[in-house]
Amino acid sequence: MDRNKQHRQVTLIRQSLFDQGLLDEQFVQLEELQDDANPNFVEEVVTLFYRDSARLILNIDQALDKSPLDFAKLDSYMHQFKGSASSIGAKKVKSECTLFREYCNAGNGEGCKRTFQQLKKEYALLRKKLETYFQLARQVGPVETACRRI
User: Fold this and answer.
1) From residue 31, how far is each of 28, 110, 132, 134 by CA, in Å?
2) Which end of the chain, C or N, has fewer beta carbons within 10 A?
3) How far apart are CA 27 and CA 91, in angstroms?
């Protein structure tokens, strides 16, 4: 595959992440912080998000297994998770975090559990797609970013 086709493929994959509602403008803002001095900045931030959030997922899983549920603790964990997801522009993950917190505030344990399962699916899907995107982007080298077409 020639270099121009590869660059187009990277651009299309990136755009699909926005078109599918997986990412929001915060991701573009991260890209704007990336420069020649730190060409992998966005990938490094996303990698840190996934590394740090694994601990929160484990904490939430464990808290959901306890009876009675400690909604204040669950809400606190999810507040942290939502902040982390927001920092990388993980739009669908952030949306599930918001819904989970609403269920916490309502004292709805079943709603929390259902939403958490969906959150983990969105989280894994985004991770897989971002890994593919970053892998291809590394192979083709610098590509224009931070210019989302609307």
Assistant:
1) 5, 38, 17, 12
2) C
3) 10
Each residue's pLDDT tens digit, 29-79? 999 999 888 888 999 999 999 999 999 999 999 999 999 999 999 999 999
31 token code pair: 């890209």
Cβ-based burial of 118 (10 A; exposed 0-12, middle 13-18, buried ≥19): middle
What Rg value do the Cα atoms of the chain yield, rounded? 17
- Nearest CA among 101, 81, 92 for reference residue 125: 92
**Distance separating alpha carbons of residues 140 and 150, to the nearest angstrom:** 24
pLDDT in tens, 95-117: 999 999 999 999 999 999 999 99
Instruction: Please report how many Cα atoms fall inside a 13 Å half-sphere around the Cα of residue 81, on the Cβ side.
Output: 29
Closest CA to 30 of 16, 38, 126: 38
